Please model this.
Amino acid sequence: MSVTIKDIAEKANISYPSVSRALSGKPGVSEETRKKILKIAEEMNYQPNALARSLVQNKSSTIGLIIPDILNPYFPEIAKGVEDEAHINELSVFLCNSDWDDTRERKYIDKLLAKRVDGIIIFPTSKRNISEIRRKAGSDLPIIILGGSYAEEGSVSIAIDDVLGAEISVVHLLDKDYRNLAFIGGKSGLSSVDDRLEGFVAGHKKFGLEVSLEMIVESELTFNGGYTAMNELLDRGGQPGAVLAENDVIAMGVIQAIRTRGLKIPEDIAVAGFDDIPMASMTGIDLTTVRQPKYEMGKMAVLELKALLDKEIYSKVNKRLVLKPELIIRKTS
Amino acid sequence: MSVTIKDIAEKANISYPSVSRALSGKPGVSEETRKKILKIAEEMNYQPNALARSLVQNKSSTIGLIIPDILNPYFPEIAKGVEDEAHINELSVFLCNSDWDDTRERKYIDKLLAKRVDGIIIFPTSKRNISEIRRKAGSDLPIIILGGSYAEEGSVSIAIDDVLGAEISVVHLLDKDYRNLAFIGGKSGLSSVDDRLEGFVAGHKKFGLEVSLEMIVESELTFNGGYTAMNELLDRGGQPGAVLAENDVIAMGVIQAIRTRGLKIPEDIAVAGFDDIPMASMTGIDLTTVRQPKYEMGKMAVLELKALLDKEIYSKVNKRLVLKPELIIRKTS
DNA sequence: TTGAAAGCGCTAACAC
DNA sequence: GTGTTAGCGCTTTCAA
Model:
């Protein structure tokens, strides 16, 4: 059993509320007794019990981070931003990996709510679960939504302009005279997929071009997803002039599929991605992509969360932070 | 304020301990009342308070995961293993990113202890902090140490045989007639660095070769670290025949440095890494490397933790799980 | 400055 | 099967 403030109080011949005051730096104890108590606590190897403290204070100094795929380098970057900023603000973070699974995501939400987190930062798997959280959480929990245009009453959302991002990418490709572009992305229903597809179409429109439906391919949002989708596309005989992938990891799979067939990038097929994950800039890859300020987004998320917590406005807010995407042109286009 | 079991009890005209029994599936309530209570709980949008429960049960169903660098793809893979297995076992995980910083690591340990985690899984920044945790944690906290040969009383360690891994890699390079090998790794004091260096020397010995000290270069354990270290080595004029990098991320930096100078891999310089992160197998990279079962290691860590928890042996244990490394030969050697 | 008392939301032991 | 009581470790009134 671990040491409690009562144990310390006994040893110091003082009441335990005084020990509490001394340890948490509150006024109401003389400097003398405070020092004495601090010393005894140290000697006894006292570890405060944050659970008990949270229970009475009704705040846990803990936040939940729900991301869909920690293996996609995009998310660790966000996670690091979250973690760094949380650490600065003395918050602990629960890591939840939803695996793009709706049900699992909901389970995590329940868990986090039970653990009485002070707020939730979520990169949602679908639009549906968002209102679900808001409902379950009641009105007193800050929710920060990452990476998508989710306008939900009672939350702050942070994302780049996905439509614009895809559009400038497509315009760049068409400018360079690539034609017959393909879009390889995830299932409809995910905000980023829908928005980027919208930008894909918008970019074409600027050139007076139509998008053909066969050139829009659904895939898992992973390396293998991109690899498989690209192979299917090529098997079908429809060789595109360029491919816009919904994210960089998919783009990597696309590149792998193209190269495995002995085709050259960008001579035979150009490729562009989304996110600008670290490996995109590697020699040997050199992927053209739309950069997102991932680390900063993670930091912002915690900062916004803190702001809500301080102001205690929680659910009355409905703020959308839209960041500017930046096209990074490299050798694959 | 949120709904409590007392609120439910009131509404159901029953005592609140009965509500507790009903909700946690314990015997002592009739099926009838249980159903009734479950229904009311649902209606009132009841969220159990895990903090209160943890306080009385003296267990939090929460574990801490301390890793040094979530941006290195090696660690997300481990984290995913941990997270998946934790999720299966109804455990939540606190993510802590130590950034290879001793002090920060110690802060996290204190935080986790305060939050009364049921156990800690740590990839330590140095050998020193290990005994520190054991001391602070007292005798009743399971500690699982990842990625290094840390024999510490009262813990389970899980790692591949780093010495052997480096040795088979060096033997492979020497077999292929590469000579004048360089080792680029982190600071001494980190178990994996020391052990891999030992294997580096051992491999040479098998060929009756000596290692020259100028060929052992210290670097940050990152892409930039590898990039900088390799450039320094080349600037010095000492062009190695091959480079063994302490990990794949460093190897990527090394590759970048070599290619930026217009040198060819493996014709001019061969490169081998450690870990087998996903991008190592990308066309355009094709890195020869020593594979670690990262995901499995993460899962094992939780499983071992659970086992300690169930047996309540905690600190009396001293178990070392040494896994077999596997050399994956690709085009960089 | 200090102590006494209450209570955060829950579980567990015991009595009925 | 159900209610009563106590208590987990802490903070926070309120008196002294």
